[in-house]
Amino acid sequence: MIATVHIVDANPLRNLVRRTPRVGAIDGLRWSKKALCGQFSPGAMPDAQLRRGGFVAWWEDDDAVDQFEAENPRAEPFRSGWAVRLRPTRTRATWPNAEFDPFPEPNERHEGTHAAITLGTALVPKFPRFLRASSPLDDQFVADPNGIWGIAITMPPRIVMTLTFWTDQDATDAFVRSGSHGAAMKAHYDFKTDDHEFISAGGFFGFEPYAMRGALDGKNATPAGFAA
Fold it and tell me: pTM, whole model, 2 decimals?
């Protein structure tokens, strides 16, 4: 199985009401959620980008993605945006609301650019504390010279996610263990039980990004040559 993220800049209302791929209606689609995006920025909350939206999905294989992108009407709005395909390499905890586990055991390592996803289902009463705890982590990523590009994502109603790209897997590991992120892990995450103080049904996930197309312009643009 593989994961994809499709993002496009469009009218904010269109992003809110757009119908994204639905499991059961598209061959090979195993999981899909609408994505509303934000930019990592100083302050308690990510800088919301109302014009930027899309979807996150899991697929049986590349053939299923190819067929969707070439033939399905719901793919049309995303042909002018940016998309990445991700091969799962490692995990800690489980993907929310999914009846599958595509991650290898034991976890794998790979050469070259590494993609990291953190996500989970937000515990509403603790959400303000979650935002305060997350803000220094955003600042740390923006300042890290090995962080290539990143985006904050909300998948309504309560799934929160970050997607970041790194020069290599060692850079990701160094970030997780150091600075504000390392301190937050010690304060809010139990390594023995995989319990997180602020979220449930989620965790930390690693991927090899093996195919990318398109670009995003304007605020939080994808870097020049990123898709190459």
Answer: 0.90
